[in-house]
Amino acid sequence: MRDPLPDHGEELIHLMHDSEARSDVPADSVTQHFAAVSAGTVKAKKKGLTIGAWIAVGWMTLLILAAILAPVLPIPDPINDANPLKAAQGPTLNHIFGLDGNGRDVFSRIIWGARNSLFIAFAAVITGFIIGGALGLISGYFKGRVGGVLGALTDILLAFPQLVLALAVVSFLGRTVFNVTMALAIVSIPILARITRASTLSWSERDFVTAARAQGAGHIRTMLREILPNVLPAMLSIALLGIAVAIVAEASLSLVGAGVKPDVTTWGNVIFSGQAYLREAPSMVLFPSMVIFFTVYALNYLGDVLRATFDVRESAL
Amino acid sequence: MLRTFTLKFLRLVLVVLVVTFITFGLTKLQPGDPVSKIIPFGTAQQKAALTQDLGLNEPVYQQYGKWLGNFLQGDFGKYYDSKQSVNTVIKTSLPVSLELMLYAQFFALLIAIPLGVTTAYRAGSKYDRGANATMFALLALPNFVVALLLAIYVGAKWQLLPTQSNVIPFPLNPLDNWTYMLMPVVALTLGQIAVYMRLLRSDMIATLQEDFITTAKAKGIPTRRILWRHALRPSSLTLLTVAGLNVGALIGGAIVVENVFGVPGLGKRITEAILAKQYPALQSYVAIIAILYVTVNFAIDILYSVLDPRIRNARSVA
Question: Transmembrane ranges (chain A) (predicted)?
Answer without folding.
Answer: 51-73, 118-142, 149-170, 176-196, 231-249, 285-303
